[in-house]
Amino acid sequence: MVRSVVTTWYGTFVVDGDRVVRAALAPDAEPELAERAGLRRAGRLTPEEEEVLGALGTDDWTTRDRRLAEHGLRLDRAAAALPPGPVPAPPRERQRAVLLSVAERALTASWDPSVHVEEAVRAASDLDRVRNLVGERLGSWVSRDAPDLDPGDAASAARRAIEGDLAGPFAPTSAEIATARRRLAELFRAIERTQAELERAVKTATPERTPNLSALLGPELAARLLAQARGLDRLARLPASTVQVLGAERAFFEHLRGHAPPPRHGLLFLHPAIQSAPRHERGKLSRTLAGKVAIAARLDRAGAPVDPSLLRAFDARRVRLKEARAPKSRPGRRSRSVPPLHGAARDR
Length: 348
Known about the structure:
CATH architecture of the largest domain: Orthogonal Bundle
Largest sheet: 3 strands, antiparallel
């Protein structure tokens, strides 16, 4: 006779053949049912399962649930998935409501507030490309009737187009054309203002969310690293070797194809200490900094305060590398005790 323990979203049952010999029903309230569904999803036991397992004793019982098999039951995929017919199941609408509640809780728990910093960084990067395109077109346009203007000086072109100090034989004869160009210059100014506001907001918001990363890298680089890693949660799970090459994915895949050497750094190259280091030391500094970044991300994910030892350890590594490349004093030459032959010959 098959004896098994059957667990469902509405309770746990001990089945002996076609009889239910023990039943532990879950509460009817939706919050309690959602809580138990969350426990099962996390691989933990519900209160009803703990009650049943505590009363089973040492007899041989089977189950098709791997969670219960880890607590002494024998795993059997052929065991019953539902209790026998006499046990009524709640309506499907109740189960649907419970699953929606579990999904809502999971979404709330997985929400990462740093997503707003990521979007601000991406928006500023997009606006930078747009500003360059608009500025290039505006400078080219204004320099048509202002030969003294550098086409690459978009700021001066915008100023002159807005102030309307462009006159002469090459100026637009159509008022509509002149107005349209002025609107383009105003758009360039608006893009610049919006980009500056985004950058200021990132500098203010990043240290609040990631104090350790901001203290180690600075707010701007910390925000760009968060955006590249797609959030603090994922950055905290990445190993230091991956953090080191974040932002150098194209070079890394070229290396995998055998077309390039492995990249030594990605976004971390933007750190002033790595930029100013000699070329042969940048890889070592990047590796050290990536290890500290991985630790800082885990600290920020846990809500820990700023740990100044991370920055001190990185600075100590920089100092050791600098001392290692300092020129060493060479010992002076020893004086010769025997005069050269040609000198002796001259003395004679």
